[in-house]
Every structure is written in C-alpha cells, then in structure tokens.
Amino acid sequence: GDSVTQMEGPVTLSEEAFLTINCTYTATGYPSLFWYVQYPGEGLQLLLKATKADDKGSNKGFEATYRKETTSFHLEKGSVQVSDSAVYFCALTLDSGNTGKLIFGQGTTLQVKP
Amino acid sequence: DTEVTQTPKHLVMGMTNKKSLKCEQHMGHRAMYWYKQKAKKPPELMFVYSYEKLSINESVPSRFSPECPNSSLLNLHLHALQPEDSALYLCASSSTTTGFSPLHFGNGTRLTVT
Q: Does A40 touch chain B (CB under 8 A)?
C-alpha cells in the first residue's frame, strides 16, 4: 500500500547547523508531497509542497525536491535556528484518489540547541 | 495565526458525558476533516466531509458523531467515550479533496477522558 517513511529522531543540532530530514515514499499513483511542521502545543502547519516530479518546494529557508527516480522528498535547511525546534511530518496524497486523505510519515523531532 | 479555529482548546469529560468539539473556517474551503493525534504519533484520519457530505468514515466508533451544518462549520459530538480516546483532536480544511489541495489545520482540542 501507499506509505511514507521518515528518518527516526530525535535529531539534535546546534544553531546554524545544516539540516537534512530524509523522507521516502511508496505510492501506486502520482502523489503530491508535503512537509508539515508541528510546534509544541499547536496543530500542523504546511511548510512546503510539491505536486509533480522535479518540483522544488521552499518556505522559510526550508527546501525539498520531489525526486521520482528515488521516490524521495528530503527536507533541508542551510542554517537552523532554535525556533525551528518542532516535529516535522512528511506526507503524501494521491490526486487520483480524490479523497483528500493524507498519508503521514511517523514524524521526526528536531531539537536545536543554542 | 491559524485560519481554522477550534473550540474548546482543552476539554475534560467523564465517560458518561456528552460534549461537542467545534471547528470553523472562513477560507471558502469545501472539504473538512477530523483527525485524532496521540502523543508522539502522526495524525490519524477519522472523517472527511466534501461539499458538506460525509465522504470518508475511517471505521470510527459510533461514540464519535460528526456533523457539518454548513460549509464553514464542522462539529464532532462525543458520547460515552473511553479513557483511551484521550488525544489531540485536529480539524482541517482544504479547498477540495483533490491531491493538489494542501490541508490547513487548526490548533486542536486536547481531550482528556476520565
């Protein structure tokens, strides 16, 4: 079935370090891919998205490229801040299904230390 | 600021109580969702409404009863819950249920069943 696999956390980095959170997917159709972020005590916020192969989503210094050949959508940021500490979820949805159903990865906790 | 508003933020209820969770959005979205999130886990889909009609029920127990009175409002009626139903309940909306439409989440209602 369709699924999303994220690297296990927690990921602990020092401020200004480079961030990569790996995400790979399995899907039978043509998925749209998303990264959501959840800060403590809050709901999920859309961080970025990509709807077709080779698209690059970007927002707030974060980037991810839709790689169909490796079925991946890795999240990167060049210089993290303490305020980036949160849980990051990779997710997909299938346009062909037209259900709106999001399939989430397990989430990766990022902790950034000053 | 989130564009999906959920009330109340916190709710404590006994197993014999009846309560309701409310969700409101004014983005003109025609799809609305209820998700349940346990600690350190990704959200799990419960219900999807598309154009005010229930389109997906993920085999949720009948003690959870959704209602969509109009395109801006979504309720979740709770009755005879169990302690294991304690969780963060997230409402979300999207413009449609197609795969290209990202979900916008509220900050959730943290429910404790005693």
A: no
